[in-house]
Fold this protein.
Amino acid sequence: MDHAIQLVVGLGNPGKDYARTRHNAGFWVVDELARRHGGVFNDERKFHGRVAKATVAGVEVRLLEPGTYMNRSGLAVRSLMDYLKLVPEQVLVVHDEIDLPVGELRLKWDGGHGGHNGLRDLHQHLGDQYRRLRVGVGRPPSKAEGIDHVLERPTKAEQPLLDAAVLRAADVVERVLGEGMEKAMLALHTSGATNDKAE
């Protein structure tokens, strides 16, 4: 089975009210990939989200932004996976991560959902073998404030860090598609960000 990535999913919440909140970091990265590579998003009702086709690093991929809200992301991903006849190992999910400092990136093979509602739903539909690119949005002072934190806009100090992280994250996805996960993880690690195999 060829496990090269063929679907890149950005997690987030649809609608203007959520567009610039921390929880939408995955959308930002996929938007940047579409911008760079001529992908045009279309609303695809049968896939429960917005889908674009693009050729990235010589690889034709689909880009997906679920329109189901974060806690039902798995429905959209599973629908498009089934249509494309993909296995979870061919899916790269880009998402916000409160357990990483603002702007830090990590690639991850598989593992737990870490309390992330989007990943939790993906686990229900896909299992835990999909690939992930985690975009750090920082931890709130209290763990109880986590959901409020991700549904708020970044501070003025954080926004430039996240803007830069989105560009770097798009670079990382390009490397994953062009060179594979192992080389992309090594490059990310040696650039100053760490990576991990599982949690």
Summary: The first strand starts at residue 7 and ends at 10.
